[in-house]
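pinging the channel bc i need a second pair of eyes. not urgent but kinda urgent?? the chain im working w is below, pasted from the shared doc
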Amino acid sequence: MKATLLFAVTGTLASLAASQPHRSHHQHARRQAQQKVEVHTAWTTVDGPSVVVYVDGHGKPYSTSTLGSNQHPPTAPPQPAPPNPAPAPAPAPAPAPAPPSQPGKPPSGGGPVTTGPGFKSGVSYSPYNGDNSCKSAQQVASDFSKINGYQVIRLYGTDCNQVANVLAATKESNVKLFLGIFDLAQVQKEAETISNAIHGDWSRVNAISVGNEMVNKGTSPGTVIGAINQARGALKGSGYNGPVVTVDTMMAMANHPEICKASDFCAINCHAFFDGNTPAEKSGEFVKGWVDKISQATGKTVVVTETGWPTQGDTNGKAVPSQQNHQAAMSSIGGALSSNVIYYSAYNDMWKKNGPGTFGAEQFWGILGNAPSN
């Protein structure tokens, strides 16, 4: 996420990463085809009261008043006749009060605050059936009938017509999409797929990621940075000027801050469960600790693009999968981080494969359990 930082900063992040055990992390692999704070402040001008002094024809004060936006000066008393025939000078008119300014209307609680960082919470979604087949538009709509209360929906790729289907399923809501280009070898093609689905209305897009945990999987940072730049150019040519980032684990970001610098903000997947030393009720402290470390070392806003807790699976040290611990972890994370968090995931991903590296929990991170379309 950050590139060519000062040597001292890079050393700091490297030492932070070295202090944490590097454990297995779940992989959002693409399904296989038959053969996965910038803060904007709105300033509002408010009219204060004005004190006005009224004088008679001889310049002698006779009254004062405080004027607001809906007050008017008092009627002046009759002026005495002057001793000479010359007419008395007319009193200066009081200045008319300025009309009150109109405060901006705040966004609704469920709608997005801004593009990129600044939203409250989101959730990830994958459009695959348990047999790895694509979900239909009707199935996607069924799934989204149960998803609410989030400002951002994260997608990982462009297959299965997922961008168009999710846009259609969420058209009546105020959510924005955190879209993804999954395959670094198909950046141009996937950028075009996104553009074709958007039809020029980029207002529905929060950000676009290029790759998911690629450095963590062994891809070189230089390759990832090249893909980010390629995607940014292709998307800009289609009219998109929003954030473009890569997403990786907090460990990969700490070890390679250059991928953060190449991104418009730092996007990390951060799961306390894989640490093995953190119980569910301490998840928020764990995630916030990594957010603060990376933000302080890179000087960039950090968005958590995955975090959660499995409901089933094998124990990993102090991390125990269960429904109760899932709820404890979610409560802890929500209490520690009030914004810029995307939870993993909306539903259990039964299309994935469990294994020892993921403690048999890979399928069971769903906040809402099994998808209604399954």
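so The beta strands are 50-55, 61-67, 121-124, 152-154, 176-181, 205-212, 244-249, 266-269, 302-306, 341-343. and The chain has nine helices and ten strands. — does that match what u expected or am i reading it wrong
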